[in-house]
Amino acid sequence: MENNNIAGTGIRFLASFLDALIFGVVFGLIFYATTGDYSVTWTQETTGQLIYYFYLTITPVLWGGYIIGKRICRIKVKRIDDGNVRLSNMILREVIGNYLLGTVTFGISILISIFMIMFRKDKRGIHDFIGGTHVVYSS
């Protein structure tokens, strides 16, 4: 793992923001096209979250570590040995490390991860340790 190639907090936040924005617009348009309504109930909100986490888990496996926001920002998720991520890495990283742990700790683990990414030399958060991953700039 090369430390000069590791992506930090700012670029990772930007990539996540772009992903959420793009996904939200696309999901919102699909929702409106299928229901004809702008309002979202909690069941549709939960469905949207599940679809979003499915996207975050599957897309990097199929697309060499990228999701749309990361591709735009020229960063990607890699295994700690710099290999391409596998489904097991992404399930551990996104489903267990981000979603479940974030839910169980009421978001505290996400805040801790942000500080870990900001201040640790290897720029890895809790979800990166759980998934055996890190985020690097594309070459």
From TrEMBL:
UniProt entry tagged with the keyword Plastid: no
Keyword terms, alphabetized: Cell membrane, Membrane, Transmembrane, Transmembrane helix
RDD domain: residues covered: 7-131
Listed Pfam families: RDD
Subcellular location: Cell membrane
Domain of life: Bacteria
Residues passing through the membrane, by range: 12-32, 52-69, 96-119
Membrane topology: Multi-pass membrane protein
Record's protein name: RDD family protein
Native organism: Cytobacillus spartinae
